[in-house]
User: Fold these one by one.
Assistant:
Number 1:
Amino acid sequence: MEINRLDSADGDFQAALEKLLAWDPVSDDRVFDTVNEILRSVRKNGDSALLEYSRRFDALEADSVAQLEMPLSRLQQAVDAISEDERAALQQAAQRIRNYAEHQKMESWEYTESDGTLLGQQVNPLDRVGLYVPGGKAAYPSSVLMNAIPAAVAGVAELVMVVPTPGGVLNQLVLAAAHIAGVNRVFTIGGAQAVAALAYGTETVPAVDKIVGPGNVYVATAKRMVFGTVGIDMVAGPSEILVICDGHTDPDWIAMDLFSQAEHDEDAQAILLSPDAGFLDAVQQSIERLIAEMPRREIIEQSMTTRGALIKVASLEQAAEVANFIAPEHLELSVDNAQQLARSIRHAGAIFLGRYTAEALGDYCAGPNHVLPTSRSARFSSPLGVYDFQKRSSLIGCSPQGASELGKVASTLARGEGLVAHARSAENRIK
C-alpha cells in the first residue's frame, strides 16, 4: 500500500502538509438544490411533505406522521431484546458518559458591588433538543448516548430523536440506547426532511431549539442551512486521527489505531508523526500485513493512500508543533510522559494519553464526548458537552446609587454616538 511519506526537514514540507489536510466540505449544487427544496416543502406543507418524502426515500407506508412516532414502550422492548452483554456495555458506557458530563455543568452566579448593584449570570437549559441518529446499515448506538446524555444532564426538558428506518428496518441497539439515555419521543423519519421537521415543526413533530447528531451529506447540508432558525452542534467533516509516537510502542498497535479511523469512510484521515524513521518503516510493514484481516479493507486502503501519511519529524517537540497546526479531531500521544507532552498541545478535539489509551475507547466508553471538531476546527471549537445544551443570561440590577453613577457614563457614551433616547433614558435615573 502506497502511503504518503513526508519529512519535516524537506523544503516543501509545509506545502505538502497543507495539501494533505485540504478537504472541501461544501456540498455540490445538486445536493444544495435538493435540500433547499425539501426544507421549503416541509416548512410550507408540514406533515404532508414529511409523509411524501418518507415514502419516496425510505419506502415507508403510513397514513399519518403520527404513525411514524414510536411508542416509548418499544424502546424498553429493545432493551429486553438485546443480549445481556450488549445491555451491560450500553449501561456502563452511559454511566461513564453521565459521570463525566456532571463535571461540565455550568452554574448561575452573581455578585453585589459596593453601591448595591447586582451583576451576574443565570444559566438555563434549552427547552427542547432534536437528536438525529443515522439508521439502516449506519447505526451507531454510541452516538445516541454521546448526544442525548449531556442534554439530559444539562436539564433539557424534552429530547426528540429522529431515526430513518429504510424499509422499516429498526436497529435494536439504537432503540435500547435511546431508552437508557432518556430520550422522550422518537420519530422514524430521516434525511433532510427530518432536519426540516425539527427546525420548523409540523403538525405532529415539535420544533426544537437545537439539532445535534451525525448524518450523510444531505443531513449535514440541511443542518447548515437551518442554522440560525435553530442551533446545531457542528457541521462535521471526515473522521481524523493523529498519532505521535516516540518509536517504542508496538507498531501493530499503532497500525490498528490508524485503521480505527480510516475504516469510517474513504475521506477519513489517519496520520502518524515520529522522530524515528525506522519506526515509521515498521508501522508501514504492520499496515501492509494487517490490512488483509480487515473486513473494511477497501475503505481503509483508499483512506490511507489518499489522505493518510507517515511523517518524520525532528523531535517530539516538533511533533507537537505540527500537531497544533493540524488541530486534529483525535490525538494519541503514544509516548513516555504523555501528560508532559500534552501541555504543549493547544489544538485538539480529544487527547489520548500514553501507549495504552486507544482512541477507540473514547469513541465508546471512556466518558468524554466523541462528538469532536474536525477539519482543523479544533483551533476555535470544542467537543460537544453539557455546556452546548445550556445558555446564559446576564443579570443586571442597579441600586439607586449605581443607576446614578452608571447613568452618567452611559449618557456621555450615548450622546457621543448620537443616540439621544439612550442618553435620556439613563439620565432619568441620575440623582
Number 2:
Amino acid sequence: MKLAYLGGNYNGFEHQANNATPLPTVEEKLFGALLKSRLVAPVDSNEFETSGSLVKLWPAEEVTQYSKGGRTDRGVSAFGQVVGVRVRSNRPLPSRPAGTPEPIIREEGNKGGQPLSPLPSPAEFGIKDELPYVQILNRLLPHDIRALAWAPNPPPDFSARFNCQSRHYKYFFSNPAIYPRNNASSSPSFSGHLDIAKMQEAASYFLGENDFRNFCKLDASKQINNFKRIIYESSIEEVPATHFGTSEDSEGPKMYYFNLRGSAFLWHQVRHMIAILFLIGQRLEKPSLVKELLDVVKNPRKPQYEMADDRALVLWECYFPEGELDWVYGETEEKDGLMDIVWMGWHKSRLEEVLRRGLVGVIEETKWRAAGAAEAKVAEEEVPKPLPPADRYKGHILVDGGSRVLYRGKYIPVMQRARMDEVEVLNEKYRKKKPERVSGKGKARRAADVAAAAATDGERVEVVAYE
C-alpha cells in the first residue's frame, strides 16, 4: 500500500507498543482502519467491540507479514510511504478436485430462488474483482492520512524496508527564512536572506558514498558501527509557482527545498544535513564545512549543533526495483473524491495564509508610520538616534527551518565547539552500563557464568535472568 500523510498531528509513523506518546502515531490509525474494516483479523474477535484501543488487537508480524519503507519522526510528513501487509482478499480458493460439485450461491433467505452468478475461478480472477482497498481505508482513515494505491502479488518474502532501493526526501524552506530586517538583532551580514548559491555548493559535497556519523543523532543503544550511506541526489531546488497545472505569480517569500535521495538514512540524518546547510546559507560557515564533517578520519567526534525543525521534512517517495510493484490506482471518480478531501484541507490553510499575509501588511504599514513619526519627533527635539539593534545585541539568529525566530548568543564556529565521544567509545560505555539479559534453557547457570566472567575483569555487571 502506498500512503500519504501530513505529520503535524502525529507522534511519528511508528507505533510505540510499550511507550505512551503525547500524540497518536500514523501506524495506530492505519492498524485501526485495517482492523475495523476486517481486512486484517483481530487477535481476539470477542474483544473487538469492547476494546478501548484497536491496536491492542493487532496480530503478530508472522500473521500480517507487516513491513514499512520508512520510519518518519514526529511532525514529519510523507507523500510516498510504502507498507507491506497480508490482508483479506476476494480471490477464490484454488480449484476443487475433479468430481467435486460446483457450490450454488443463492440470495440470503431465498433457498428456492435462482442461484446467483458463481464467483470467478482463480484463472479468471482479475484486479477488477478484488476488494477496493484504497476506498475502504480512506473511509476509515483521518483526512490527513490517505491511501493512494495498492500493489498486488509482491515478490515472495517482500519487505517494504529491505526491498526498497532508495528513499527520496524533500525539506521545504522559504527565502528569506525570517522576516527581513535592516540592522537586525543578528549578525549584520544576515538580514534574513539565505545564500542559495553557497547552500547549493555545500549540498553537492554530500553526493556519493560517505560516512555520516557527524550528520545524525548518535544512539548507543542501537550499537551501530557502520555509518556509510550512498547519496544519489543532493541539491537545492526552487518550488515552482504553479497550482493545479496553471502558472501563477507567487506572492511573498520564494520557496525552496533540499532535494535528497539516498540508499538509506540514519536517525535524524536529513535534519542534521539541512541544519548545516542553513548555517552556510546564513554565511556563518563556509561550504567547505560539509567536507570537514565528512572527513571522519580527521574529525571522528561529532561537534554539538542543533538539528533542523521537523515540520518541513517530507518522505517524498520510496523506490523499488523496476517491475517489482505494479501499483493500482483508483478510477477518476475515486480520485475526485480523494481530491475533495485534500482540497478542503488545502483551502483552509490557504485562507489562513491570506489572512496572516494581510496581518503582516497591516503591521508593516503601522511600523513604518510609527518610525516616521519617531524620526520627526527626534528631529524636532534634536535628540541623538538610538543605536540600531545589531549594535545592542551581539548574538545571532539561528535558522532551523521552523516558524520561530531563535535568538542565540555569540556564534561559535561548528568545528570549534565541544565534541561528543567517538562512536566506538559511546557504544562501549553503553554496553558496560546496560545489564546483560540472558534467557532460555539453563538461564540461571548462564547468569552466574556472566557474573563470574565480569568479576574476573574487575568489573561489576548487573545480570537479569528472564523468561
